[in-house]
Specification:
Elements lengths: L10 H9 L2 H10 L4 E2 H5 L6 H13 L3 E6 L2 E6 L2 H11 L2 H19 L16
Antiparallel strand pairs: 1-3, 2-3
């Protein structure tokens, strides 16, 4: 039986959409070092400040950054909590992959001991 899943908007989708762009990932990398102004974040890129602002809005919508006002400065800081959600989601597939690797190991062991294989393929060490 095939399950019928309905797409629904969620935070994880917004995080994946935000992380899909290399400019936004680079901005997050910079923010790992600490809070920064929009101008500082824009320096390494050959794009306009309005384009950087659009990237920041996407990151903010996904909950990956927070914007703060300090006097005339607008700083951005990393809020990495949503990345934990991505890691937890990906980690939920770990048992599937471990089982798949175990099955592959079993198959390789069976093939190595198969007398019908040519001699050069029997008892060779295979690594993944």
């Amino acid at each position: 039986m095939i399950a019928n899943y309905t797409a629904r908007p969620d935070g994880l989708s917004a995080v994946f959409a935000a992380l899909a762009d290399p400019t936004r990932r680079a901005i997050l990398e910079r923010l790992r070092l600490g809070a920064a102004t929009v101008n500082v974040l824009a320096e390494p890129f050959n794009i306009s400040l309005p384009a950087i602002s659009r990237h920041l809005k996407v990151l903010e919508h996904a909950g990956l950054i927070a914007r703060e006002r300090e006097a005339q400065w607008r700083r951005c800081r990393l809020t990495a909590e949503p990345i934990k959600d991505v890691a937890a989601w990906a980690g939920s597939y770990r048992p599937f992959w471990e089982e798949s690797f175990e099955k592959l190991d079993t198959l390789l062991a069976e093939l190595q001991n198969d007398d019908t294989l040519p001699a050069e393929l029997q008892h060779e060490e295979h690594t993944l």
